[in-house]
Specification:
The complex is a heterodimer.
Chain A (H helix, E strand, L loop, with lengths): L2 E4 L3 E5 L4 E8 L5 E7 L6 E7 L4 E4 L2 E6 L4 E6 L8 E9 L2 E4 L3 E6 L1
Parallel strand pairs in A: 2-11
Antiparallel strand pairs in A: 1-3, 3-8, 4-5, 4-9, 6-7, 7-8, 9-10, 9-11
Chain B lengths: L4 E3 L2 E4 L5 E6 L6 E7 L5 E8 L2 E4 L8 E4 L6 E5 L8 E8 L9 E2 L3 E5 L1
Parallel strand pairs in B: 2-11
Antiparallel strand pairs in B: 1-3, 3-8, 4-5, 4-9, 5-6, 7-8, 9-10, 9-11
Classes of the chains: A mainly beta, B mainly beta.
Chain lengths: 110, 115
């Protein structure tokens, strides 16, 4: 069955640095990958979508890549700020819905 | 636009009772998805509905769980005879008919506690 792994459960970085989160998937070739942000006690918030024929997508300080050969997506936050601290989820389409990874909890230290 | 509205935010039920979770999608959205999230775990797909139709219920337990999205009113996720293992956060998401795969809008969730 399809499976999504995210590089680590938690990631701590210093303010101003670039945070890089990894999402690996197996047993499926998705057409779309999405990234969401989730704060404690809240629902996920959609950030970016990238299609299989797109190598890279940017939105303000966010950048997402999609490597269909490696079956991997990277999510970058440049010039990170303490307000970026949250759990970040990746998801890929599967049939008519999306499968989510377990998330990576990012802490940006001042 | 009020976004996806879920209620109640918190629900406490004793073992054996029924839990009814409600979700009103964003205005103009006709696709509704229910996900369950256990502590420290990812979101697990349960069911995908359109108005008056269940499109995919492959993630829903065969017994005790049911979902509907009537022509009028919110989508309802119903759990009968709740057990402790049903304690979780239940999230509803919606998407528009033109771009169902583009990105979901999630509600704030219902936190079910079974005592």
């Amino acid at each position: 069955s399809q499976k999504i792994e995210q590089n680590s459960e938690a990631l701590n970085i210093q303010e101003g640095k670039t945070a890089t989160l990894t999402c690996n998937y197996t047993n499926y070739s998705p057409a779309y990958l999405q990234w969401y942000r989730q704060d404690p006690g809240r629902g996920p918030v959609f950030l970016l979508l990238i299609r299989e024929n797109e190598k890279e997508k940017r939105k303000e300080r966010l950048k997402v890549t999609f490597d269909t050969t490696l079956k991997q997506s990277l999510f970058h936050i440049t010039a990170s700020q303490p307000a970026d601290s949250a759990t970040y989820l990746c998801a890929h389409n599967y049939g008519q819905n999306f499968v989510f990874g377990p998330g990576t909890r990012l802490s940006v230290l001042p | 636009n009020a976004g996806v509205m879920q209620n109640p935010r918190h629900l406490v039920r004793r073992r054996g009772q029924e839990a009814r979770l409600r979700c009103s999608p964003m205005k103009g959205h006709s696709h509704v998805y229910w996900y369950r999230q256990l502590p420290e775990e990812g979101l697990k797909f349960m069911v995908y509905l359109q108005k008056e139709n269940i499109i995919d219920e492959s993630g829903m337990p065969k017994e005790r769980f049911s979902a509907e999205f009537p022509k009028e009113g919110p989508s309802i996720l119903r759990i009968q005879q709740v057990v402790r293992g049903d304690s979780a956060a239940y999230f509803c998401a919606s998407s528009p008919p033109e771009t169902p795969n583009y990105g979901y809008t999630f509600g704030s969730g219902t936190r079910l506690t079974v005592v």
